[in-house]
Design goal:
heterotrimer; A mainly alpha; B alpha/beta; C mainly alpha; A: mainly alpha; 2 strands; disordered N terminus; B: alpha/beta; eight-stranded mixed β-sheet; 12 strands; 30% helix
């Protein structure tokens, strides 16, 4: 009897890690991503200058190409922008904001979506119908349109863009988690747990949720890439973050005006970083999906 | 007179980098003009694959790796793909299993008939329409001119199978391969379709290979029968002879598992075990693990050996005297 | 059928109502437009006059009712900054946006469909791998960044393409279009291509998946078995089946494309409604913002409704199958 009450084993963690690392692309993506995380979160300590401390920025140093030296003898390895900020420092801070926005919105959306999905799958009946109707409606609207409307209404701000991103993302999580939970809920071990009169909460959290984790991890990774990309797009339009907290998207937008005059670095360099982050997160997600093989 | 179709030592394999699986082996068959051959076997025995090997429509990575397919004496495996296309539908036609799936769901019946017609003949619009109506009329579809503009889902299963048969008969082919065309239909409709196909083939002298897992259907329809097991023919001969006195223990098992009218209450026999996977065949006779007569001698593959002038069996211990391999 | 359509229409109306509420109340709690109109010498009496003139002294629910009432008569208020009816401005700019979106749609189909079909037919080939990588990149990279790189490469470095504006247009009497002049097409190419990338990636994926599925169906095998030419099998029998989901998704996405045009129009200074929205946001031109959002939501909901109804009419399998939820 005890055999059916244990959840199906999904391969040991060590085994999965080994399989994950057996793909060179995934390893490079992981190194790149971790590297950006360290660079971003360590920005205040690594960056040569605090680009938003006006005492450290000299307008006379504006628009200098990469490798130039400032009047005070500091080298701008990646050049300076229109306000004379060191691009390297600005980008490090930009990475930090982009990552924070992506992670925070992803995790919040995951939490809300997973909760809704689990409730829908567990309660079934009209609760399920109502919740999934809302999810369908949400998903039927293009993300960019919803984000646009919300940000026009809410204005700029880190909290506001996170809110907007959570609104456009939660439904994906809800739908996926519900799907997995429905399948898991029909399995023998859940039936057995029900038979043992374990409480609903315990079955949900102790049995169904752990089996949804692989799927949630994969979807969360993919969604994070999407969130970072969408945030950059909105910030580029001037709708996302305030100029005081410039993410990569805003840096690209600032440099866009100088593009025609050949000062490519202000726009292109943060763009390349953005690219690298998004591609590495996508590759990580792809590999996770191959290794964890969730039912998507 | 040369036979309409002759298979000689046909071998069809699925070749992947990981492994090569031989799905059909040493397959030899002859079908004469106007003859109906029943090809019988369990699912997975390779009987449908035999059909697709004949008209060269096996999905990759499968392909014919050895042997010949002779149509009126000509080996069609040597033909180029365009030449082969010219034969399909014109010389060799096919009717397949599930009438729900045989017709394209988003094309009108008329369009599908037209495409099959224009594949081999140059016809103007009016001629196409006339021929299409005639073809539908011939297979007993009422109000054929109205059906041309219908989509497949608007017809019943039996009607759809009739349309498929009409398409197969458009160019008066020499050979029709019918792959279990009645399994998905109601019993009464089954009977109608059987009678229809039988009549049309007899009238025109078309050779017919009727692929089925149902020995009872084949018994009432075919002239000769070939029994397949795990990719090989294990017994072949006139249908009545084989039903009266099977030579292969597998054939005997198949016959014993068919319910017979008038013997109610009698216990139906089953063949114990199941057919081995093609990836995991025993060295000799593939049926040996399930066979009551198996001995150590069965560990080498017996050849398909003539029992008499019309029959052959592939067995070390056949049920008929004088047929030992 | 009628019941299904009625239900869908009611649903769409409900969504529209909710969206107008959200947009109107949302936009009207941000900022205070009075200060845009008030010069620095404006005293309290002058301010009150402006407030009254703009209707801002009314309670917000009354403003909403007035707004809805006016909207139903085609009046969405006057733009604060331009001093002309907001709807008038939108209709003036909309053709440019629709032209861009339409061109993107055509590009997505014309480029994406062959690529997807090819990748579906030879899924293991190197071509398919390249196509799928392209689709992944086009789907996951921020489109505005691709646009910037295209400007940098083709306009700044190579000088081949104009990066700004719409180029010469032809007045067709009811609408101006740049599709009919060389200069117009030259200006349209880069923004339209950039805008089409996401749709193109979706078309590639859908076409590939559809092709892989459809090539294994019985009806494709049947068409081949009848000798139908490969060109017609692929171009009609297979394509028609995969087009239904693709057209549906594109129809549903078209509203999203209009919304996404905001990004493209900003990069390429394309004089459409999207560019106008960004300008309006910068100066807090509330009536214009509201009019834009409502118009896009309206277009989107209407398109979805039409696609749903058309889908149920077009696909012969759904037509009789009852309504989808």
């Amino acid at each position: 009897m005890s055999a059916v009450t244990t959840a199906p084993a999904a391969g040991s963690a060590r085994d999965l890690t080994r399989r994950f690392l057996s793909n060179p692309g995934a390893v490079i993506a992981l190194i790149v991503f971790v590297g950006f995380c360290i660079a971003g979160f360590g920005a205040p300590w690594i960056a040569p200058q605090n680009p938003y401390d006006l005492r450290q920025v000299d307008i006379l140093d504006s628009l200098m190409p990469p490798g130039s030296e400032s009047f005070t003898g500091m080298t701008y390895w990646l050049g300076t922008d229109g306000q004379g900020r060191d691009m390297l420092s600005a980008m490090l801070y930009g990475i930090r904001i982009s990552l924070v926005v992506g992670l925070a919105s992803g995790l919040l959306a995951l939490a809300i979506g997973a909760l809704v999905g689990l409730i829908a799958a567990y309660r079934r009946g009209w609760v399920d119908t109502v919740l999934m109707r809302i999810v369908d409606l949400q998903l039927s609207f293009p993300t960019i349109l919803v984000a646009l409307i919300l940000l026009v209404i809410l204005g700029r701000g880190v909290d506001k863009i996170i809110f907007a991103l959570v609104v456009v993302q939660w439904a994906y999580f809800a739908r996926t988690v519900r799907g997995v939970a429905l399948v898991e809920g029909a399995r023998d071990y859940v039936e057995a747990a029900r038979g043992l009169r374990l409480g609903g909460m315990r079955i949900l959290l102790g049995h169904i949720l752990p089996n949804c984790l692989p799927t949630m991890l994969v979807v969360a990774t993919m969604q994070m890439a999407m969130a970072i990309s969408l945030e950059a797009t909105l910030s580029f339009l001037g709708l996302g973050l305030p100029p005081t907290r410039p993410s990569l998207g805003l840096l690209i937008a600032n440099g866009f005006d100088y593009l025609q005059s050949g000062r490519y670095w202000i726009s292109v360099l943060p763009g390349l970083v953005l690219l690298a982050i998004i591609i590495s997160v996508n590759l990580l997600g792809d590999r996770l999906r191959d290794v964890l093989n969730p039912r998507l | 007179m040369t036979a309409v179709l002759e298979l000689r030592g046909l071998q069809t394999s699925f070749v992947t980098p990981a492994a090569t699986i031989h799905a059909l082996r040493d397959l030899s068959l002859t079908v004469q003009r106007g003859e109906i051959l029943g090809l019988v076997g369990e699912s997975g025995s390779g009987k449908s694959l035999t059909g697709f090997s004949i008209n060269r429509l096996i999905s990759p990575p499968g392909r014919v790796t050895e042997g010949e397919v002779r149509l009126h004496g000509q080996n069609i495996l040597a033909l180029s793909e365009p030449e082969m296309r010219g034969l399909r539908g014109r010389k060799i036609a096919m009717i397949s299993q599930d009438p729900m799936m045989t017709l394209n769901p988003v094309l009108r019946i008329g369009t599908q008939i037209r495409d099959a017609l224009l594949a081999h003949e140059k016809l103007d619009k009016a001629e196409v329409r006339r021929r299409a109506i005639a073809a539908l009329d011939e297979v007993g579809i009422p109000a054929p001119e109205d059906r041309l503009s219908a989509y497949p889902h608007q017809l019943s299963g039996g009607m759809r199978q009739r349309v498929a048969i009409a398409i197969a008969l458009l160019h008066q082919p020499d050979l029709i391969i019918a792959d279990e065309p009645t399994t998905a239909l109601d019993v009464t409709i089954q009977g109608q379709i059987l009678a229809l196909v039988q009549r049309l083939c007899r009238d025109r002298g078309t050779a017919l290979i009727w692929i089925s897992h149902d020995l009872a259907v084949v018994a009432g329809l075919a002239d000769r029968v070939a029994v397949m097991y795990a990719g090989r023919i294990v017994e072949e001969g006139p249908v009545d002879d084989i039903l009266d006195a099977p030579a292969h223990p597998y054939t005997q098992g198949l016959i014993a598992s068919v319910p017979v009218p008038g013997q109610r209450g009698g216990r139906l026999q089953q063949i114990p075990g199941r057919m081995p996977l093609l990836t995991d065949l025993p060295p000799g006779c593939a049926f040996a693990p399930r066979c009551p007569r198996a001995t150590e001698a069965c560990a080498t593959m017996p050849a398909l050996t003539p029992v008499n002038s019309t029959r052959a069996v592939r067995c070390v211990h056949p049920l008929i005297k004088g047929a030992e391999a | 059928m009628a019941e299904y359509i009625t239900r869908r229409v009611l649903q769409a109306l409900l969504v529209l109502t909710v969206m107008t509420l959200l947009v109107f109340f949302g936009v009207n709690v941000i900022g205070n437009p009075v200060y845009i109109f008030a010069s620095s010498e404006c005293d309290q009496a002058c301010l009150t006059a402006i407030i009254k003139d703009l209707g801002l002294d009314q309670p917000i629910w009354r403003q909403y009712l007035t707004f809805v009432g006016n909207m139903l008569q085609g009046d969405m208020g006057k733009s604060f900054t331009h001093g002309v009816p907001a709807l008038h401005l939108i209709f003036e700019r909309l053709p440019a946006t629709l032209e861009l979106a339409f061109a993107a749609l055509v590009l997505a189909l014309v480029i994406g469909l062959p690529m997807g079909v090819y990748a579906g037919l030879r899924p293991e080939g190197i071509g398919a791998k390249l196509i799928m990588s392209f689709s992944m990149v086009a789907f996951s990279l921020p489109v505005f960044w691709i646009g910037i790189i295209m400007i940098l490469t083709f306009s700044v470095q190579l000088g081949w393409m104009p990066s700004v504006g719409r180029g010469d247009t032809v007045d067709l009497g009811f609408v101006e279009t740049s599709l009919l002049t060389l200069d117009g097409l030259h200006h349209l190419a880069m923004p339209a291509f950039t805008l089409s990338l996401i749709m193109m990636a979706m078309v590639i994926r859908l076409a590939r998946a559809g092709m892989r599925e459809v090539m294994f169906t019985d009806y494709i095998k049947f068409a081949r078995a009848n000798g139908v030419t490969e060109r017609r099998v692929l171009g009609v029998h297979a394509l028609k089946n995969i087009l239904i989901p693709i057209v549906t998704v594109l129809g549903m996405e078209f509203g999203g494309v209009i919304a996404f045009a905001v990004v493209i129009e900003s990069i390429f200074s394309w004089p459409g409604v999207g560019k106008m929205l960004i300008d309006a946001i910068a100066v807090l031109d509330r009536p214009l913002i509201v009019a834009y959002l409502i118009c896009v939501v309206f277009m989107f909901v209407t398109l979805n409704l039409l696609v749903d109804i058309l889908y149920s009419l077009l696909d012969p399998r759904i037509r009789l199958g009852g309504g989808r939820a």
